[in-house]
Amino acid sequence: MSRGFKSLTPADKAVAEFLSKLSHKPPVVEVPLGEALGRYLARDIIADVDVPPFDRAAFDGYAVRSIDTLGATRTNPVVLKVVGRAGPGRPFEGVVREGEAVEIATGAPLPEGADAVVPYEEAAERGGAVEIYRPVPRYYYVSRRGEDLSKGELVLKAGTRLRPWDLGVLASLGMSRVPIYLVRAAVISTGDELVEVEEVSGGAPPPGKVVNSTRFALIGLFREAGADAEYLGLVPDDEEAIRRALERALSGFDIVATTGGASVGGPDATHKAVSSIADFYVRGIAVRPGRPNGAAVVGGKPVIVLSGFPVAAVVGFEIFARPAILKMVGGRPEPQPTVRGVLTRRITTPINVRTYARVRAYVKEGKVYVEPLAVTGSGVLSTLTRGNAILVVPENREGYDEGEEVEVQLIRELEAV
Amino acid sequence: MSRGFKSLTPADKAVAEFLSKLSHKPPVVEVPLGEALGRYLARDIIADVDVPPFDRAAFDGYAVRSIDTLGATRTNPVVLKVVGRAGPGRPFEGVVREGEAVEIATGAPLPEGADAVVPYEEAAERGGAVEIYRPVPRYYYVSRRGEDLSKGELVLKAGTRLRPWDLGVLASLGMSRVPIYLVRAAVISTGDELVEVEEVSGGAPPPGKVVNSTRFALIGLFREAGADAEYLGLVPDDEEAIRRALERALSGFDIVATTGGASVGGPDATHKAVSSIADFYVRGIAVRPGRPNGAAVVGGKPVIVLSGFPVAAVVGFEIFARPAILKMVGGRPEPQPTVRGVLTRRITTPINVRTYARVRAYVKEGKVYVEPLAVTGSGVLSTLTRGNAILVVPENREGYDEGEEVEVQLIRELEAV
């Protein structure tokens, strides 16, 4: 080829090199527990108390001494005297002695002397006494102190992305504040053809101009990935202006993504600006769409240089930005929804290039089908709204045949036709 | 059974009846596009402009009249005069005439007269002229006006949960604000055994008390489901106090969830309060954990009555609250990450009860295994942090055998051992 990239770097190689050069860690901040959802935990959490803090009933019934129930049957029940009631937050303050029982609700502390709970189903109370219909072993239907979390135990590892139940576990440990990594992401757009949506509201853009849609996709991706994301605005296609914008962004953010100005043959002011400040820079990736995407490291921080075309930028985010965030916080990739289905027609892709094909996955008569969407360019964002899944064709394949079963990543629910 | 629920309602039946009684719609508000991430679109979006708004180059190269390239080969190239350059936002203002070409960058408007793009790879420019090495058809490497979105087309359906690329598509249409359903969720906790984490910070709870962890799990689940969620505080185990709290919540929120006070045999003040105001109320669900969970409808709005035990509450949220939100906004369930693996030991569950078993899924020597976690009660939240997946055992099974292949829902990444 006379112009364009002289050679393309395989995606895995580009990512591995890029990640190995990253040394920045985002700041650690303590936030109230309720604000930690979706954030990355900044240190290992070791239980410093037992949860539950006492033995408690795991079922509604009667707290008893298990030894008293020996030999009980439905025809020959053991009869115990009911000496009190216990509820959660309303413990029975006395002691359960030989021949005695306490009616107990799930969650209530097990009274002193008792060591098991007989469920209502195996008992019947009549006039101050309860018939027990079966023998129960020690700790039957008892949640032991420390059973949920025991003191000294590693509860959650640093880098864990906090889900709703994790917050519950941290609350159980008495933590009202939690240390998280505050990942601050900045997005800078370039492209003299761009106009902001706020300036065209309701109408069509001026002749020759297109709306900057990529910024919204990127800000959304950063937020979904657990980062705070801020849009820093549209910078002219000018190397010096872009360099200044990058330097400003790098001083206050943990990861910076640019869009536009990365192409070969077209406007490449972003590329030149990044080149002039980068300690490491890989670009020209063997990925379709998204060949012009690149990733740089400046002072240990990641700078993701993305195509101005929205679909190419989304692919570049997945390849470089998400792994960079996980590397910085010590996080692990989240599981993705996938489905297997039969291709409705052949899909042809170039060898030695990883292709992200947009597809429509649907169920028909109980069987899943995958239909490739026709695409001409990397700008056709509607393939992500018309389609509902991505088929990643690896470098060592030239596509898949009609009728072949493939696994796709669902970005929206499966359609039913 | 002498106490407890007289009969249990199958989960599907309970949910279907509950949903059929819901008539409330959350308010529709217009928010700036950047704030719409993860919200539910409140109306169908029809394109009122073409995207792209003009024909443009889909590749870097030369804009030509396709007819001029007829018969071109590498040995016998067609030679065209280069009359200008076009970039995105920098259109070529003239007309491409017979024998002429314009160098063009991806995204630039196709100049008048030209109808195709010859990529750099198939051309070579020398001194003001370009050699073309192959014939190209009309619209070769041209993104046609309206190719991405065409005027009048249904772009996104009401009820769609907005993902990052959806925001990009809406921006392309010139929408700087977007109508979404604002789903306001309230959580009320009850339980005299509870103490708030803010009151025990750092230490263990007072004797007989446990920290209210369920509130954090629920608020987190509501937020992950696209709702605003507010915690309204701890209400004493008192029917009248709970009724007043419910009525206040129902006046300002679209969905209300309570925790605690729903059991049979234990404290049931919440149950009584809900009963006294509900138009519809189902409780006692054939689900484990989460039998005491229930769902009510008050003035068309959903009230989810959940167990105070965190894992039971999480299960109840999935059974009642998430479908209620989707019903109110016309949304569709999101795809869940799943994996198939081999059970490492038998799991036994009761017939006619749907069991949500917490499991650990891991990869060993390239094969996926599923290990059931030992659980005694519905309060053991750590099973959701120790485990990484849920195995739902349906009502018509009494479990699965060791060695059987099962599909589980991943709530965290697969472990590698």
TrEMBL record, chains A, B:
The keyword Signal does not apply. Keywords: Molybdenum cofactor biosynthesis. Pfam families: MoCF_biosynth, MoeA_C, MoeA_N. Pathway: Cofactor biosynthesis; molybdopterin biosynthesis. This is Molybdenum cofactor synthesis domain protein. GO terms for cellular component: cytoplasm. One of its GO terms (molecular function) is molybdopterin molybdotransferase activity. PANTHER family: MOLYBDOPTERIN BIOSYNTHESIS PROTEIN (PTHR10192), MOLYBDOPTERIN BIOSYNTHESIS PROTEIN MJ0666-RELATED (PTHR10192:SF19). It comes from Thermoproteus uzoniensis (strain 768-20). Residues 186-327 form the MoaB/Mog domain. The lineage of its organism: Archaea, Thermoproteota, Thermoprotei, Thermoproteales, Thermoproteaceae. GO terms for biological process: Mo-molybdopterin cofactor biosynthetic process. InterPro entries: MoaB/Mog-like_dom_sf (IPR036425), MoaB/Mog_dom (IPR001453), MoeA-like (IPR038987), MoeA_C_domain_IV (IPR005111), MoeA_C_domain_IV_sf (IPR036688), MoeA_linker/N (IPR005110), MoeA_linker/N_sf (IPR036135). Gene3D superfamilies: MoaB/Mog-like domain, MoeA, C-terminal, domain IV, Molybdopterin biosynthesis moea protein, domain 2, Molybdopterin biosynthesis moea protein, domain 3.
